[in-house]
User: Fold this.
Amino acid sequence: MKVVVTGANGLVGSAVVARLAGAHDVVAVSRGPARVRAAGAARYVSVDLDDAVAAEALVRSEAPAAVVHCAAMTDVDACERDAAAAYRMNHDATAAIARACAAVNARLVALSTDYVFDGEAGPYGEDDVPNPRGVYARTKRLGEEAALLLAPDCAVARIAVVYSGSRETKRTFALAAYDALCAGTEVRAFVDQSVTPTLADSAAEMAIALLASGYRGVLHCAGATEVTRVAFCHALCDLAGVSRALVVPVRLADVKLLAPRPLRSALTVDRARMLLGASGPLALSNALARFVAELQGASVSAS
Ligand SMILES: NC(=O)c1ccc[n+]([C@@H]2O[C@H](COP(=O)([O-])OP(=O)(O)OC[C@H]3O[C@@H](n4cnc5c(N)ncnc54)[C@H](OP(=O)(O)O)[C@@H]3O)[C@@H](O)[C@H]2O)c1
Assistant:
């Protein structure tokens, strides 16, 4: 099967490519040169998806059986500073890819976020009504709508607070916190923000299983365990064998941040658990075991 994977230099996209390459004809798409091993192992194409015409032309010319769309403008504060750029990337590029998928009869799996919810009353299921706050959240929600509206065979996979033990991709909160804790340095973490952190490789596994499932609509593909950031860091302390006293609790309201962050945006994953079975959401303990394996350089087997 020919699959186009966007965001191939990113946390989730690189994991999708790593899992598909070898077994499928993978076209790995990102900006600039291939910066991660996985992207280089597939047929790599550099395209600036900011250009919606180029985004649509790419998918039309490749005419794949499926697209896994992981590329996005993911820096929430940068989105706040440049709403036009966020709209182009998170809405226009997604709409262009969805239009092209419709034209070539490709199935589309588009990645999205827990930020589509305001975080006032989580955890949230797929049938809860989004109320995005901030530019990133609003443009991602518009991207969801465009994908579902324009691509007849489309699933939107919402994930949350992505982390990875890979040192090739963007440095996540989890990796930075783990490194700091191992060095005996204090880590500040929100005590009142409750989330469902998602291991990038697990998100990739779920996106691929979702692709194969034929499911259409929104599916929550986050980690299966809801935790506060402090509780997550306590689990990292236990892994690192250091005192939990290194974790300094802070309240979200006490930190000045540009983009609004939802307080309680955990996603319920019962539907994904039923649909995806063994490839479904991971409990935090299982995900952290994989995180450690990634840190130690253990390879992921293709599926
Ligand atoms: N990270 C999270 O905590 C999180 C949480 C919830 C949902 N999500 C969603 O999950 C998906 C994957 O996120 P991620 O964390 O894997 O993202 P990421 O690590 O930030 O990677 C984003 C990717 O998008 C590519 N990209 C950005 N702008 C582009 C452009 N103009 N043209 C071509 N490629 C472009 C980047 O390419 P280059 O690196 O080559 O520039 C990069 O490969 C996104 O839809 C995101 O909204 C992420």
Remarks:
- DSSP finds eleven helices and 13 strands in the chain.
- The first strand starts at residue 2 and ends at 6.
